[in-house]
Amino acid sequence: MSHQPHERVDIALGERSYPILIGPHLLEDDELLSEHIAARNLLIVTNETIAPLYLRPLQTALKQQRTAAVVLPDGEQYKTLDTLSRIFDALVSERMNRDAAVVALGGGVIGDMAGFAAACYQRGIDYIQVPTTLLAQVDSSVGGKTAVNHPSAKNMIGAFHQPRCVIADTATLHTLPEREFAAGIAEIVKYGLIYDPAFFVWLEEHAEALLKRLDSAVIYAVRRSCEIKAEVVGIDEREHGLRAILNLGHTFGHAIETASGYGNWLHGEAVAAGMVMAADLSERLGWLPGADKQRAIALLKRFNLPVDPPRIGAERARELMGLDKKVLDGKLRLVLLRSLGKADVVSDYSGEAFAATMRTHFDTAA
Amino acid sequence: MSHQPHERVDIALGERSYPILIGPHLLEDDELLSEHIAARNLLIVTNETIAPLYLRPLQTALKQQRTAAVVLPDGEQYKTLDTLSRIFDALVSERMNRDAAVVALGGGVIGDMAGFAAACYQRGIDYIQVPTTLLAQVDSSVGGKTAVNHPSAKNMIGAFHQPRCVIADTATLHTLPEREFAAGIAEIVKYGLIYDPAFFVWLEEHAEALLKRLDSAVIYAVRRSCEIKAEVVGIDEREHGLRAILNLGHTFGHAIETASGYGNWLHGEAVAAGMVMAADLSERLGWLPGADKQRAIALLKRFNLPVDPPRIGAERARELMGLDKKVLDGKLRLVLLRSLGKADVVSDYSGEAFAATMRTHFDTAA
Fold first, then answer.
1. B63 catalytic, yes or no?
2. Which GO terms describe its molecular function (chains A, B) (predicted)?
3. Which domain CATH number covers B165?
4. Domain boundary residue, one of B145, B174, B203
5. Whether the Cβ atoms of residue B307 and residue B276 lie closer than 8 Å to each other
6. Are B120 and B209 contained in the same domain?
7. Which residue numbers of A belong to the known binding site?
8. Any long-range contacts for B33-36 (C-beta under 8 Å, 24+ apart)?
9. A42 φ, ψ to 5°?
10. Residues with Cβ < 8 Å from A232, sequence gap 6 or more?
11. What's the number of domains chain B is made of?
């Protein structure tokens, strides 16, 4: 297949600038791929779920290049140094040199691992993302973050490494299970909440079309999400300030994910519940009107997302949040909402309000 | 101890600039350390050989900071992803955050692993080098290269990550075994050969003082080596062109090291024999006068360095060189000598001359 219609977002990062191409059936578009993938030797990294669906079509479309593939087990629990070493083994045994590139075909876990492997192999080779989940398309496409987990902490070991291009094939989303699709929507809602009130309203108005996965709605939501993330990251590539607002709901979310064991709560689900907690704390601090918190909750619910965390206990959650990467100098910084569409990173909030939010959401109801 | 006299080389890399401090007993100099190490939380990475000698003195001198230590087994064979994960375990269990730093106390293996761990932990924290071998002081202090080995290929997995400062304590060299000291000299000779004819002559004239490890001679040799490497690397931080001349003897050397099993030939020893091979090929190509090759061999011999590789077989060596990182696009680039003090990276040399050098040095004498 050639010449699929698509939209394009350009990520401006000087000599590391790259395009995100968004549209249906792009991973089968041989002309588009050969236009954007310069390397002649490619290692495709994918997993057991994705390989039967998309590996062959992608390899067929990449017929101009030499491709090899490594198929990893599927799941966040495999996002480890051990699994990473299987990618290195494949790169070495396929005799990939500095001019080779890694292609990440899959969701965020595959993207994180393949990108990190590319960052480290021979101290850095190119990589190309072909995200096949909504979450990966709106989150991992921008920012250059790659990582694996440590047994005690998520994304503890990683690198900043920008892709050469991102091929976001929206047709792949039709095979995505409902829960995973919804988890991607959670991050999309996040972009509206932290940065763009108009986009939040657009989401309220197009919830139906998005739930039906209509091409036009999905393409717009992915594009707008990438644009917002690019704007935030472009201002602050290495996460010193503004970029932290992208972590809305994530600090609470990490506690949820860790307590439940990686993979039992999807990342987006944990973020959804975490965003509600951030909204709750924002309301307690008098920043966010209660009605706006309710609008956020209502929108998340329409997308079938959880708005309440599991009762893991406030004490335990606090402990789990203590090792979180976002702790700077012993102080817990949180992303909170000034209004729908505006977030701030703060650490001088009232500890009492924080404790109340923690108790309300993590402790067993009295 | 405070206020030890020392020399200083400044590595100019914009906002990642850092100083190399060179002199005796610097790792015990509490004032110097607190002046140059900003982080309040430090993980010292060292090995079983170095720890009994220098860990306590260093921790004593760092009494202003919180220090923890991880003691790894000693040897190139432990420069693996598995050992690396022990550093990550220590960083996590000591609750080191983004503001913490890793201190590499040891030789090149420790520096490479500790630096790579720092490059990856939370996607990059600071690190400080305290090199205790001559090789590490003249080689790893400059360039920002960090890595671990893959079972099939050296330094295959790594990152570019600059230290915040380097504390080259020349008193530590007095406990260095003779073979290791000589291996460091090999790299020092290399700097003369590739870049500085006057330094080569200085080495011929001060061989005796260096062999006796006299402070003034050692400090000058370390300083001049760091300066030369800094000049080369400063021009070409990411190894696209000129920097490759630093690999004089290394492509042949890698074959020697790999065939002998990591650690049986010291890196510097393999480089010494490899440099002789490079000189031999340079002579065959009519670039280097035979008398100059003999001067290089004579100088290496004075430092008790091997000038002939083991007879691993030219075919096997060629194969081992085939996966070398320096292969670009299937073509074997080599660093050769135009004269004593001037090197070039070339790939358009005569294949016949190359084969003759390989046969002469790797095949069993007829």
1. no
2. 3-dehydroquinate synthase activity; metal ion binding; nucleotide binding
3. 3.40.50.1970
4. B174
5. yes
6. no
7. 74-79, 108-112, 132-133, 145, 154, 172-175, 187, 250, 267
8. B33/B61, B33/B62, B33/B167, B34/B62, B34/B64, B34/B65, B36/B128, B36/B164, B36/B165, B36/B167
9. -130, 135
10. A195, A242, A243, A245, A246
11. 2
Q: Which residues lie closer than 8 Å to B59 by C-beta, 6 or more apart? A: B44, B67, B69
The reply to whether A251 and A146 lie within a common domain is: no
Please answer yes or no on whether B85 and A81 come within 8 Å at the CB atom. yes
Measured at the CA of A337, the angle between CA A336 and CA A338, to 5 degrees, comes to 125
B141 with B187, same domain: the answer is: no
Of B161, B58, B38, the residue nearest B99 (C-alpha)? B38
What's the rounded Cα separation, in Å, for the pair B119 and B102? 10
Do A331 and A294 have their domain in common?
A: yes
Look up residue A120 and give its amino acid. Answer: C
Residue A15 structural domain:
7-174
B148 with B273, same domain: the answer is no
- Residues paired with A169 in a beta bridge: A23
Q: Which of B2, B141, B4 is nearest to B60 (CA)?
A: B2
What is the DSSP secondary structure assignment for residue B365, as one 8-state letter? P
Annotated binding site of B for NAD(+): 74-79, 108-112, 132-133, 145, 154, 172-175
Which residues does B248 contact at the CB level (< 8 Å), separation at least 6? B190, B193, B194, B271, B274, B275, B278, B335, B337, B343
Residue A2 domain-assigned (yes or no): no
Are A28 and A127 within one domain? Answer: yes
Q: What residues of chain B lie within 8 A of the CB of A150, using their CB?
A: 88-89, 92
A226 and A242 in a single domain? The answer is: yes
Which chain A residues contact residue B120 at CB under 8 A? 120, 157-159
**B211/B149 same-domain check:** no
Q: Which of A157, A174, A191 is the last residue of a domain?
A: A174
DSSP states along B216-260:
HHHHHHHHHHHHHHHHHHHH-TTSSSGGGGGGTTHHHHHHHHHHH
CATH code of residue B334: 1.20.1090.10
User: Which residue type is seen at A316?
Assistant: R
B22-66, pLDDT tens digit by residue? 999 999 999 999 999 999 999 999 999 999 999 999 999 999 999
Nearest CB neighbour to A123, from listed B122, B124, B158: B158
Chain A interface includes B81 (CB < 8 A): yes
B239 part of the active site = yes
Residues of A with CB below 8 A from B97's CB? 325, 327-329
- Look at residue A1 and tell me if it is in a domain: no
Residue list for the binding site of B for Zn(2+): 187, 250, 267
Q: How far apart are CA A256 and CA A262, in angstroms?
A: 9
**CB contact residues (below 8 A), chain A span 312-351, against chain B:** 322-323, 325, 327-329
B95, A323: Cβ pair inside 8 Å?
yes
Which value does ipTM take for this structure?
Answer: 0.86
pLDDT tens for chain A, 366 residues long, are 777 789 999 998 888 999 999 999 999 999 999 999 999 999 999 999 999 999 999 999 999 999 999 999 998 889 999 999 999 999 999 999 999 999 999 999 999 999 999 999 999 999 999 999 999 999 988 989 999 999 988 899 999 999 999 999 999 999 999 999 999 999 999 999 999 999 999 999 999 999 999 999 999 999 999 999 999 987 766 666 788 899 999 999 989 988 887 668 988 999 999 999 999 999 999 999 999 999 999 999 999 999 999 999 998 998 888 744 455 444 588 999 999 999 999 988 888 999 999 999 999 764
